[in-house]
Amino acid sequence: MPYPEIRPRRLRRTPAVRRLVSETRVAPAELVLPMFVKEGLTEPRPIASLPGVLQHSRDSLRKAAVEAVQAGVGGIMLFGVPAERDATGSGGIDPAGILNVAIRDVAAEVGDATVVMSDLCLDEFTSHGHCGLLGPDGDVDNDATLAAYAEMAVAQAAAGAGVVGPSGMMDGQVGVVRRALDAAGYADVAVLAYAVKYASAFFGPFRDAVESALQGDRRTYQQDPANLRESLREVELDVAEGADMVMVKPALPYLDVVAAVRAAVDVPVAAYQVSGEYAMVEAASANGWVDRERVIMETLTSIRRAGAGIILTYWAAEAARLLRESY
Ligand code: PBG
Fold first, then answer.
1. Which residues are catalytic?
2. Ligand 1: which residue has its CA nearest to atom 10?
3. By residue range, what is the domain housing residue 320?
4. Binding residues for 5-aminolevulinate 1, per the UniProt record (predicted)?
5. What pLDDT does 216 receive?
6. Residues of the chain falling short of pLDDT 70
């Protein structure tokens, strides 16, 4: 009797057979590119802790959005960096605020060629950097913040967002946003709920990207990285409140959470490969310590394998191009 009888290596012998039996594929259409636009810029600006990612001017944003569409990305998620901030984050609600203006620009430029999404949160617009309005005790006032999110959702829908992404982790935010959109005649605008968002140190470079003024942390509203059951409860609540899609964030350190959420609900599940995940790979690659493209693809494949059907990643356009070349 020859030994071993069963040889798994047979199915690993050539690129062709490996491709044939591959269990997980990442498609460009599943990738969403987060993009930053800063009010008042005439030229795009690099972000030191996110090499390769830009703070766009309105013009460069439009051009980069078109390039991303040509690369085949499934969506674009917009973040605005205002020139001025105030305690209530009024620039997020103002139709002339940078994010709403940028949504209008991008929607006009790309039409239906990709899904235009917007981050629905006040932290980029508040002088204190928190995701909501502060109460007298200095903590974020949940219900006062909800009223602001409702207005912000309507402003983003009016500007042309096809999907809004409430990301402030206020209780009840999805229900309030859904009702506000419906009441204003935007029943067709979808809600991508940042259902599971951890109080993560992996958001560090993002705070540079949006020049966040935050002192302290977000632990009274974002989740404790130690918890999984709590995430399933957040997801259940968001789906009950009308979330069309749910997101887990960050991605790679939380693949168990992605898998558990995928098993728990039937709505599309997204994962956000956040700024710190990107920055670590770029830093190691710049030092020649890892093979950059292989690491990028390995992370995306792993997030996909864990169960995310949609991946937000700063590599979306580049990865979409690489994927198209490899098929
Ligand atoms: C909130 C928001 C944040 C990120 C996405 N939406 C920042 C935060 O909660 O501190 C982080 C994204 C990243 O790190 O790439 N507007």
1. 197, 249
2. 203
3. 23-215+226-326
4. 207, 218
5. 86
6. 327
